[in-house]
Specification:
Length: 278
């Protein structure tokens, strides 16, 4: 795979520089897109950012990421909802392909995973009403089950597709779909069937890549560079393409080790590794 087929998630560069500089770097290395985090946008004039991205020839493969939905109080839930609505508006200005939903796990003090899942379904339903009205697709990103307690009680592609079917039965990826991140889903024995299903239902909005290192020394910040680990990236990519996803592959690597490097070196490594891994 070549850089123009990929997008750079700004977390890969460790959020060390202003977005303006990151956009320039990503474009100069020939990548096809960028996926900013909401924190990158703080203090920026959004229309200036959108113009710079467009003028640089980059697409926006996604805006990361939602506030968690299950909440300890009505007040928290209301604040999270308002922040998500604001972020959906930001995603629209940026011309993002989707707004990434990392739905959240158990609220502090709770052990009720069923209640959390039910809050997620209700919360996405409310967001969807707004996102549909402004034309911004929502992408549910299932996370690896090791994060079920604190980051996402939606852990498989199958579950994410079930939520799409419940909330948006007649819809497609223009309204609600899934973000497929290899780090979270590679282990799932039903993955291949569910990629095919996601394709048939036209729900694939994003494809995130990195690798799973053995051993993994930290389950949040030790993701591998593509080709460094055990994920069968080539097969997963082939199946996602066959399922009809023609968008960018977003390089999203949280890695303390990588963040020690200069951003130029990180981007060069990304460009080299995608050629080797795919
Ligand atoms: Zn991801």
């Amino acid at each position: 795979m070549l850089p123009h087929e990929c997008s750079i998630n700004t977390a890969t560069l460790g959020h060390k520089e202003p977005l303006k500089i990151v956009i320039d770097r990503v474009a100069r290395h020939g990548f096809g897109g960028i996926a900013p985090w909401r924190r990158d946008l703080d203090g920026c004039d959004l229309s200036v950012v959108a113009k710079q991205i467009k003028d640089s020839g980059l697409e926006v493969s996604g805006l990361c990421r939602s506030e968690y939905i299950p909440s300890i109080s009505e007040e928290h839930a209301k604040r999270a909802f308002e922040q998500n609505i604001r972020a959906i508006d930001q995603a629209c200005v940026l011309g993002s392909a989707c707004y990434i939903l990392v739905v959240g796990g158990l609220p502090t003090g709770s052990k009720d995973l069923f209640a959390a899942r039910s809050a997620v379904i209700d919360g996405i339903e409310r967001l969807l009403e707004y996102s549909k009205s402004v034309g911004m697709p929502l992408a549910i990103e299932p996370l690896h089950p090791m994060y079920a307690a604190d980051r996402s009680c939606v852990t498989t592609v199958g579950e994410a597709l079930d939520i799409c079917a419940i909330l948006d039965p007649d819809g497609k990826k223009e309204t609600l779909g899934v973000a497929l991140d290899v780090y979270h889903i590679w282990w799932d024995w039903q993955l291949h069937a569910n990629i095919e299903k996601a394709g048939k239902e036209d729900r694939i909005l994003a494809f995130h890549i990195c690798d799973w290192r053995v051993p993994t020394r930290d389950f949040l910040t030790d993701r591998g560079m593509m080709g460094e680990g055990v994920i069968d990236l080539e097969t997963i990519r082939r199946e996602i393409k066959k399922a009809g996803y023609l968008g960018l592959a977003e390089i999203e690597i949280f890695s303390e080790e990588l963040w020690k490097e200069d951003p130029e070196v990180i981007l060069q490594k990304c460009a080299n590794q995608i050629k080797i891994a795919f």
